[in-house]
Specification:
Helix content is 17%, strand content 29%. It has one domain: q2cbj1_9rhob like domain (Jelly Rolls). It is built from 2 helices and 13 strands; from the N terminus they run βαββαββββββββββ. The chain is α+β, with helices and mostly antiparallel strands. The strands form 3 sheets. A 7-stranded antiparallel sheet has the order 1-9-6-11-4-3-2. A 4-stranded antiparallel sheet has the order 5-10-7-8, with no helix packed on it. The protein is globular, with a radius of gyration of 18 Å.
Length: 207
């Protein structure tokens, strides 16, 4: 019997309802009252200043919940259960009509998003196949073509509920389409392992 092997897949971890409901309510309330900055490309998207979670009680609680999942996810990326640190966190408040342009995160290895409010069906996080990869120059996209993991250019995250966490490699490009619903609040973060070792050549990372 023929077998299809998924060569070199990109992992994405979804942890449903990871946050305690009380923490979700407290975090959303604090974010609505916090000082926020307007996004450079969307007048209806606002962020808090990037912060070290050790300096923010709510961020620290969320980071502590995320770390065990980072250890699991990191084992998929590097083959070993390493020590992980959430080095920075920030908030995203997407008002009706706002969107987040295509981007990736620098100077980190795993990025994550905590969802604090429901998202409109048209405003789900979209992940994009890395540009400049090993795709053929020609593409085949028709109304009858079935899209799957081997030929699709985008992956639309299924419905994310309040309290859900999503982890992904920081190099993976992603975006959020125009919000056609109510205010959407998320908390994003970047994380790093304490070190990486390649046969004795060790690189240490300090948050």
């Amino acid at each position: 019997m023929d077998q299809i092997e998924a060569l070199f897949p990109i992992p994405l971890l979804r942890a449903p309802r990871l946050l305690d409901p009380a923490l979700i309510v407290a975090a959303a309330a604090a974010i609505r009252d916090a000082r926020i900055e307007k996004n450079l490309r969307s007048d209806q998207l606002f962020h808090s200043e990037i912060a070290d979670p050790r300096d923010n009680r709510l961020f620290q609680q969320m980071a502590e919940v995320a770390v065990p999942k980072l250890v699991e996810f990191g084992a998929l990326l590097f083959g070993e259960r390493l020590r992980w640190t959430v080095k920075e966190m920030w908030t995203n408040v997407l008002e009706t009509g706002g969107s987040q342009t295509l981007h990736a995160h620098a100077n980190s290895f795993v990025s994550g998003v905590f969802y604090l409010t429901p998202s409109h069906a048209a405003c789900k996080t979209v992940f994009v196949r890395p540009p400049g990869g090993s795709d053929f120059t020609f593409r085949h996209h028709t109304r009858n073509a079935a899209m799957g993991p081997f030929n699709a250019g985008k992956y639309v995250l299924p419905e994310a509920e309040p309290g859900d966490l999503v982890l992904f490699p920081s190099y993976l490009y992603h975006e959020v389409p125009r919000n056609q619903g109510d205010q959407r609040i998320t908390v994003s973060f970047n994380s790093i392992p304490d070190s990486l070792d390649c046969w004795g050549y060790r690189i240490n990372f300090t948050p």
